[in-house]
Design brief:
The structure is a single chain. The chain has 252 residues and is an alpha/beta fold. The chain has 2 domains: 105 residues, Rossmann fold (3-Layer(aba) Sandwich); 108 residues, Rossmann fold (3-Layer(aba) Sandwich), CATH 3.40.50.1000. The radius of gyration is 18 Å and the shape is globular. The protein starts with 5 loop residues before the first strand and ends in a 10-residue tail after the last strand. The structure holds magnesium ion (MG). The site of magnesium ion has 7 residues, from loops.
Length: 252
């Protein structure tokens, strides 16, 4: 793996599950700190602002600087700013809207000719919002920007909740067009952002995550080394795997 300068950890299922830290997190972060390896936290979570996620990590006694946290809501705000969007129609939580407005973009209603429809996880997504977004997306000049295409996510008692991707799929079907831009994993925008923020290159960053199609696929697409955390050894494909976080020591 050469000279790893930073490790980018997925959050859900890698650093924590619900409100519980995954085994080995504290020791692994301490080990990386001693080795002067930077640590970043990477999540597709689009329902929370960067501050919300940072706060959760603090409450779990991890104390990263906020600049080390990358989530798809924050990255969406950056993307919209970098690409000079002015006003968007947003299907998303207040966390996503905060990130958008913080970056100087206005969230507007259907009637105000937004430049884009932006979709994140939205617990109050309904038929009225779908109708508004559909009619905006009939205009090909209106960009269709989505935080991620995650199908679902786990909650307590082994239940699943529909993910951002389920809302995106409804809109793609209704509007008969595909999303133009996907911000989160497995796309590489967030890694690219990290590299430019911290002057790192793809080979410098080890990506560690528990989902092949998201974490590892992003790393592969970006040419970054990666480790799949596969505690139950269920993944059959060909990738470097660890059973627990302690095994990171074997690679960095
Ligand atoms: Mg995960």
């Amino acid at each position: 793996m050469g000279n790893i300068k930073a490790v980018a950890f997925d959050l859900d299922g890698t650093i924590y599950t619900g409100d519980k830290l995954v085994d080995g997190v504290i020791e692994t972060l301490r080990y990386l700190k001693e080795k002067n390896i930077r640590v970043f936290f990477f999540t597709n979570n689009s329902g929370k602002s960067r501050e919300d996620i940072h706060r959760k990590l603090e409450q779990m006694n991890l104390r990263p600087e906020i600049q080390a946290v990358y989530n798809s809501a924050y990255a969406t705000g950056i993307y919209l700013k970098q690409n000079h969007f002015k006003k968007v129609y947003c299907c998303g939580t207040s966390g996503l809207k905060d990130e958008i407005t913080r970056h100087g973009i206005t969230c507007v209603g259907e009637k105000e000719s937004p430049d884009a429809v932006v979709v994140g996880l939205d617990h109050s997504f309904d038929y009225a919002k779908m109708t508004a977004a559909l009619n905006l997306l009939r205009n090909k000049d209106c960009r269709f920007i989505v935080c991620n295409k995650d199908r679902n996510y786990p909650v307590e008692n082994s239940r699943l909740m529909p993910g951002c991707g389920a809302i995106v799929a409804a809109l793609e079907r209704a509007a008969d067009r595909q999303a133009d831009i996907i911000i989160g994993k497995p796309e590489t925008f967030m890694l690219d952002l990290l590299c430019s923020d911290w002057h790192l290159q793809n080979r410098d960053i080890l990506v560690v995550g528990d989902t092949f199609d998201s974490d590892i696929a992003m790393a592969d697409a970006y040419g970054a080394p990666s480790l799949l955390l596969d505690a139950d050894d269920t993944f059959a494909g060909n990738t470097k795997k660890i059973r627990n976080l302690h095994e990171i020591k074997n690679y960095v």
